[in-house]
Amino acid sequence: MLTIGWTGGVCAGKTTALRCLGEIAALEVLDADALGHHLLREEGIRGRVVELLGAEVLGADDELDRGAVGLRVFADRALLERFNALVHPPLVERIGRAVAAARERPPRGREAFVVDAALIYEWGIQDLFDVVVAVRAVSGLALRRLRERGLDEDGARRRMAAQLPAQSKARRADFVVVNDDDLTALRRRVRFLWEHQLYELRRERGTVDDDG
């Protein structure tokens, strides 16, 4: 089965673009954010995060409040690095196991296994995949979306600075999908990616007929 790393900068629209791909292709998707949230509920990691950040990041249900965690770590670069050192290694290890398992098992009607993860290059896991696709927002769009989520400009820029620059991800990716906030155009670009740019890889994996 074809394995795809699906990435992009903060608020680039990568998840929306992946939904567009799911409209035309049979996908199995691993959402790295959802997996990370699951890890934060595991007692060992949860406890270490509370030790690092303090009990004030716990919500009324005694679970980690992701909003409170984000406010703490994105305001302090050193703290963010320590937090990432707790959470990212087990997350990357599980992603690696999932990709390896996907390569081994029968596709069962699926055409690709996709890992939706913003930090593919930051984690250095790009070689896990047959291909990496980066979704890149046009200039100013990501910042505007972060502001619409309630962050001030300084906070929004700190979130963006916590990742590789979007243009760097685009340069390193095998393919780039541009998001200009036009859903119709995004669907068209994603279809072109699947039906043309990824055609040869799909054919090698036996998910399309030789005659197209």
H/E element string?
EHEHHHHEHEHHHEHH
Strand content: 5-15%
Order of neighbouring strands in the sheet with most strands: 2-3-1-4-5
Helical fraction equals: 55-70%
Number of helices: 11
Compute the gyration radius: what is it? 18 Å
Summed over residues and divided by their number, the pLDDT gives a mean of: 87
Largest sheet: 5 strands, parallel
User: How many strands appear in the DSSP assignment?
Assistant: 5
Could you say which overall geometry the principal axes of the C-alpha atoms support?
A: globular
Report on this model:
The chain has eleven helices and five strands; from the N terminus they run βαβααααβαβαααβαα. It is α/β, with parallel strands linked by helices. It has a five-stranded parallel β-sheet, sandwiched between helices. Helix 1 packs across helix 10, helix 2 crosses helix 5 and helix 3 packs antiparallel against helix 5. The mean pLDDT is 87.
Entry keywords:
212 residues, 11 helices, globular, alpha/beta, five-stranded parallel sheet, 5 strands
Summary, kept brief:
The chain is an alpha/beta fold. The protein is built from 11 helices and 5 strands.
Q: What's the arrangement of secondary structure elements?
A:
Layout (H helix, E strand, L loop, with lengths): L1 E7 L5 H11 L2 E5 H10 L1 H11 L12 H8 L3 H28 L7 E5 L3 H4 L7 E7 L3 H8 L4 H9 L4 H7 L2 E5 L3 H15 L1 H6 L8
Parallel strand pairs: 1-3, 1-4, 2-3, 4-5
